[in-house]
Amino acid sequence: MMRCTTLRRLLAVDDSSPPSTDDDIESPNEIEKGSEASLDMETQPEYPSSRTVILSMVSVCMAFFLSALDRTIVGVAIPAISDEFKSFDDIAWYESAFLFAFCISQFPVGKIYTYFSAKWTMMILTAIFEIGSVVCAAAPSSLAFIIGRALTGLGGSGSVVGASVVIVNLVPLEKRPKYQGFLGAMFGLSSIIGPLVGGVFASKVTWRWCFWINVPIGGLALMGLWIFMPNFKGPDVLKGSLKKKLSVFDPIGNALFTAGIICLLLALQWGGLTYAWSSPRIISLLVVGIVLLVAFSFTQWYQEDGTVPPRIFCQRSIAAGFFVSLGLGAALILPTFYLPIWFQAIKETTAIEAGIRILPLLLGTVIAVIAAGIIISKTGYYTPWLLVGCAIRIVGGGLMTLFRVDTSTGEWIGYQLIVGIGTGMTLQQTNIAVQTVLSNKEIPLGLTIMSFGQFLAGTISVSVSQTILTNTLTTQLAQKLPDFDPSILSSTGATQLQEFVPMNQLSTVMTAYNAGIVNIFYLTLAAACSAFVASLFMEWKSVKAKR
């Protein structure tokens, strides 16, 4: 509800005041040239009471926590899942299916949040997430598990984008970094709890409880959203014929985009593993994928209100932030996904021990994301902390490429801590930039662009990293163990490879496995470097500036 009373007072005219002259009246052009921030101030909504804000945030954080937990709890359970299904070649799909569904649903979800109730949108997508969790928990095969992961990705997209949209409706801009920090803390908390709980389930009970646990938590989140969250309407309302309403969701653009991403992902997933990179199938997928995405770009350029409107994407901080998100997406997901595998395959730890050993990475992330949110709320500026965080992340990424079979405890603790601090300092800054430079109506799409960049990079990097790991293993083992059968890789789990070679050759297998994962860490280092370069182009805006 707008500040109607305030506007009436502003419009009221005192009889004793002198008549206004032409010089006192702004021309239409002058008004149009007025800052977007001033327009936002005139239309600033009444924010809910503190009690409503707190109860709503608790419910939103629970839904956000579910999506974040689903990403972090899976890492330590992957070896157990692949061992049960005998599906080494499918490992990347267990994460890619989630990220892929998350990516292709981002822009439609952003549009839905723009035009429909944030409350009911988040509730429906959280329910879809719950259905996906049940499918994963009860999966009888690797394929069924992958389908469940895709459903959780689709549902999870609603809470990740929706959480920031809800914050926009709950509190004013200068307070939002602190609340964005709460979301970062939820991610950090899930990062700590996920590997530990996942390790316990995978080692002591069954990996399936990693997904059954989502059911009661999701039920509480849905109940809280239903009871406590105000029914915020979208910042815009759909009017006109059914055809006009559907055109807002850009069905042609979304179809081109989805088909293009599917082609590229399949090419990256199959290339070098199922088919040679030079095979007609892979080449065709790459060419068709690129053509479809180019066509998608053209459709967006000539639309005023397409899936990715040029007026939004071409804004300097949005464009730079998107490329920052691309770099950070790969740098964020790969260590949390492959470090547990490294500990279990190289250090021969249990899933529980692997979960405990990645705590330095996760604790560093939690501490840094909370500290960054508090500092930005006080200082107003987010760009300096983004730059510092990216620089620290580069240092940590470089150190992780030094991992060896005999890496000491002090080394892997220190390296992870540095990576975690850098990650935490960068985690929410692009979302804060969106809320600072865009109008309230444009914020949902801006947040979607950032989230899409992060998860697109995560999807592609996981697919590429699995190819890197498998190719490195195949090449090195073929060179050092001439009798090694490469087909063994597709019929074993992530930690079972050692069982197929004699004890006197076990060190060779571990060295090859370590080399494969270190090559993946080089990819994370390159991603962090690209994020730093992109962050140099971010505007230096303050959340405390007059709006």
TrEMBL record:
GO cellular component, one term: plasma membrane
Entry keyword DNA damage: no
GO molecular function: transmembrane transporter activity
Chief location bin: membrane
TM annotation in the entry: 53-81, 93-116, 122-147, 179-202, 209-228, 248-270, 282-302, 322-343, 355-376, 382-403, 512-537
Record's keyword annotation contains Metal-binding: no
Bilayer disposition of the protein: Multi-pass membrane protein
Domain Major facilitator superfamily (MFS) profile residues, every copy: 56-543
A Pfam family: MFS_1
Residue segments, region Disordered: 13-45
Protein name per Swiss-Prot or TrEMBL: HC-toxin efflux carrier TOXA
